[in-house]
Amino acid sequence: MASAKTPKPDELIAIRYEPPETPWMETPTVFRPGTWSYSGTAKSLTALGLPNPRAWQPPDEDWKLPANWKGIILEGLRERLEKYRSFRLFMDLCVRCGACADKCHFYIGSGDPKNMPVLRAELLRSVYRRYFTASGKRFGKLAGARDLTIDVLKEWFYYFYQCTECRRCSVFCPYGIDQAEITMMGRELLNLVGCNINWVIEPAANCFRTGNHLGIQPGGVKDMLEFMADDIADRTGVRVEIPLNKKGVDILFVTPSGDYFADPGTYTCMGYMMLFHEIGLNYTFSTYASEGGNFGLFTSHEMIKRLNAKIYAEAKRLGVKWILGGECGHMWRVLHQYMDTMNGPADFLEEPVSPITGTRFENARSTKMVHIAEFTADLIRNGKLKLDPSRNDAYRVTFHDSCNPARAMGLFEEPRYIISHACNHFHEMAEDTIREKTLCCGGGAGLGNDENMEMRMRGGMPRAMAVKQVKEKHGVNRLACMCAIDRATLTSLMDYWVPGVTVTGVHELLANALVMKGEKERATDLRGEPLQGKAADETL
Ligand code: SF4
Ligand code: SF4
Description:
Blueprint lengths: L8 H4 L29 H7 L20 H15 L1 H9 L11 H6 L6 H16 L1 H6 L10 H11 L7 H5 L6 H14 L5 H13 L7 H19 L14 E4 L3 H4 L3 H15 L3 E2 L16 H18 L3 E4 L4 H13 L26 E3 H10 L15 E3 L3 H7 L3 H10 L30 H22 L3 E4 L2 H14 L4 E4 H8 L27
Parallel strand pairs: 1-2, 1-3, 3-4, 5-6, 6-7
Helix pairs in contact: 2-11, 3-10, 6-10, 8-10, 12-14, 14-22, 16-18, 17-19, 19-22, 20-21
The protein binds iron/sulfur cluster (SF4) (2 copies).
The site of one iron/sulfur cluster (SF4) has 16 residues, from helix 6, helix 9 and helix 10.
């Protein structure tokens, strides 16, 4: 199926914010090319044991649903209302104050009122009211209730797959209503009748088949790590080791597969390898746990649990003390918000203590998993790394707080601390676009595919405008982030809205600056770009 042509930036920026002429319940959903994602394939659904595997696409008239699809959804809704108290509260609590209305990047970028978080939630609440509240049963539309019809189901699909579950809107809600949780429930219900998107379901299926989203076999993982070790040797003169599936080491290192298979994530992975070599860390990569990302988060709670369990099963098999995690986004949301309830506590592991500094990571007492930014910031703070920030002088850097480490973990200072020690030129974006108010890349939660490109560029537009501002003011040319999805999606976003700004992981910057024992005089950075001052024609 051919992808839609994405409008040019000057066409796309002409956004109409007027509401449609018809009331929202009567405004039909149009599957416009470029604004939706392909359906999950029968093969992937079958691999995961999900219901109703078949060939279909969202614009089809007939979605080939099970005959009793309505009963399945309503029973699924009843079960979830009983099981998740927060979900029931979110269905009842909203006072429609509108504080969240203009906080969603998809609403800002599209002007579509159904992308306002308050109205996105109403898509589900209206059905909840109709079947589960006395007023809705009795007064129907007057009470904001409506029947569950095939058109409503299609509307759910369109708008719950136009939410990146970024949770920005919840920061502004006086009641703490978490739209991401509502979207997750909407997606779970859609899954019950076989309606998912392939960009979510295929990576999840691959993860069970080969250990990672991209479906790379163990030999491929080994080859990629060896290529990177060769590149490191070429740039630095230092040959780093590649511990893989090693039993009895101190630490299992888990990172998103995008870090070892896709640029610019590969440079971040080289950064981890150089750091671990330099400090003599006793660790291992794993081909079984070769994925930090967890696309269960975009499918169902059951799938989150199944995928997260892989990491801990591997930690147990290898007999490590604790787990160190790379620059991933939603892996950390799963770890910090769901792990304990779903798979924890991981009592067979030890409370993490840095073998280099002796720092005890008490915040990871239960999960036994430490974020690489915490680990590295602690090394710097204890004077364990020799850094030459001038090696990053070709770059004016800004930092994008990836939604999940920022809003789910509160990990604000550690990446900034690392960047400020690794670079001489760091500039923050506007205050209301960073830290807990950070703006989404527009391509998370499985939406970072090519067929959905127009919606991605719309959703990412607010973030891109904040980057553009610091580019114009400070000459920023590097956008750092700590998430593999961000590294992929922000690259397309920058090419579209802010050409000239490239994307990097924090540990790529760190490794550029890292002075390693026995290294040769470096002439280039990890990408092979000449260091400033090392090439005659280099200017900033
Ligand atoms: S901010 Fe909260 S209470 Fe107000 S409309 Fe949005 S979800 Fe409802
Ligand atoms: S995409 Fe983010 S801001 Fe928009 S509704 Fe979803 S969770 Fe809220």
